[in-house]
Amino acid sequence: MVFGVAGVPTNYKGKFAGVFPWLKDMGLNGFEIQCTYGFKISEDRQEIIKKMQNEGFYFSMHAPYYINLGSLNNAVVGRSKSNMKEGIELAKSLGINRIIFHPGGGHDNTEEGRIRAINQLVDAVNEFTSEIDMGDVRLYPEIGGKTASLGSLDEIIEICKRCKFCYPCIDIAHLHAREIGSITTKEVLKEKLTKIKNAIPEKFKYIHFHAYTINYGDKGEIKHLKHGENMPDGSAGMPNLDDFVAVLKEMNIEPWVVSEALDTQELSAKYMRDLYVKS
Ligand SMILES: [Zn+2]
Q1: Cα of 62 to ligand 1 centre, how many Å?
Q2: Which of 38, 82, 213, 259 could cross-link 237 (Cys pair, CB 3.0–4.6 Å)?
Q3: CA-CA distances (angstroms) from residue 91 to 8, 85, 98, 142, 244?
Q4: Ligand 1 centroid from CA 144, angstroms
Q5: Residue 100 Cα, ligand 1 centroid: separation in angstroms?
Q6: DSSP secondary structure string, 120-170?
Q7: How far is residue 228's CA from residue 266's CA, in Å, rounded to a whole number?
Q8: pLDDT tens across 140-180, in order?
Q9: Largest CA-CA distance found in the chain, in angstroms, rounded
Q10: Among 204, 176, 207, 205, which residue's Cα sits nearest to residue 189?
C-alpha cells in the first residue's frame, strides 16, 4: 500500500530530507519525484532518496513535461527518446521502478491523426526500450486531462498492450475531465477500471494512480482543485475520493496512489490513506 504526494508539498517549509518524516507522521509513504525540467536529481537528494527507501518510502518518477513521443516533429521525438533512456538509467541507479510520462500529442485531433500518433509513440517506446537494459523499470503512460491530448482510457490500454514495458497510469481526475465529467458514480469508476483489468490483466496488478479532484470545461482539464474545494458553480469537486477508495477495496487493488491536489496533496493523500486503512 502506497499513498503519497507529487513533489515537495507547498505546505512543507524546510529542507528536502525533512519532508519524509513530515509525511510519515501523516501515515504517508509515497513520493513522486517531479523531474519537471529534466531527469536530474542532485547527488545529495539521490542519497536521501536511497536512504528513505530503506526506511519504507516508495518513490516513482514523473518524466519532464517536454517529453513528447507523440509529436509530429521528429527532432522532438528523437530528443524525447534519448531523454527517456537517461531517465531509465537514473531510475535504475536509484532502485526506482516506476516512471510516469505524458503521451504528448501534436497530430490532428481526428481519429486518423490520433491513430498515427499512437502508432508513432508505440514504435518509439518499443525502439528505445529494446536498446537498453530496462532492469525492473516500468513505464507508465498517463491519462491526459485535455480532450485534445493523447492518452484517453482506450489509448492508454492500447499502448500498454503493444509495449512490453508500459503499464497504466490512471489519473482519475484527468479521466473525469477529458470525458467532461464522466465519473459521476462509484459504478462508473469501477466499470472503467474493470475494462483495464480485463484488457491487460497481467499489467493491472501494477497499476499506478493519480487521484484528486479537478475543475474542467468543454475542452477537459482547467485546473486541479484543492482538497475539499468545490467547483466554481458550488458543486462538490469530483471524482469522489470516497468512491475511489471503495473501488480499490472492492476490486482488491494493491494501491499506489499519488495525490496531485492543488497545494494540498498531503491532505488529500492522508484522507484517502486513512479511509483505506479504516474501511
Ligand atoms: Zn502527469
Answers
A1: 7
A2: 213
A3: 18, 10, 8, 18, 29
A4: 8
A5: 7
A6: HHHHHHHHHHHHS--TT-EEEEBPPSBTTSS--HHHHHHHHHH-TTB--EE
A7: 12
A8: 999 999 999 999 999 999 999 999 999 999 999 999 999 99
A9: 51
A10: 176
* Model confidence pLDDT, tens digit, residues 218-232: 999 999 999 999 999
Ligand 1 centroid from CA 145, angstroms: 9
Answer for the pair 100, 136: CB distance below 8 angstroms, yes or no: no
How far apart, in whole angstroms, are the C-alpha atoms of residue 171 and residue 174? 5
Q: How far is the CA of 24 from the centre of ligand 1 (A)?
A: 24
> Can you tell me the distance from the alpha carbon of 152 to that of 146, in angstroms, rounded to the nearest whole number?
9
CB 259 within 8 A of CB 211: yes
Ligand 1 centroid–CA 184 distance in Å is 22
Compute, in angstroms, the gap from residue 84 CA to the centroid of ligand 1: 15
Ligand 1 mean position, distance from CA 260 (Å): 9
Q: What cell numbers appear for 266 in the block?
A: 498531503
**For the chain, domain boundaries:** 2-278
- Tens-of-pLDDT digits for all 279 residues of the chain? 999 999 999 999 999 999 999 999 999 999 999 999 999 999 999 999 999 999 999 999 999 999 999 988 899 999 999 999 999 999 999 999 999 999 988 778 888 999 999 999 999 999 999 999 999 999 999 999 999 999 999 999 999 999 999 999 999 999 999 999 999 999 999 999 999 999 999 999 999 999 999 999 999 999 999 999 999 999 999 999 999 999 999 999 999 999 999 999 999 999 999 999 998
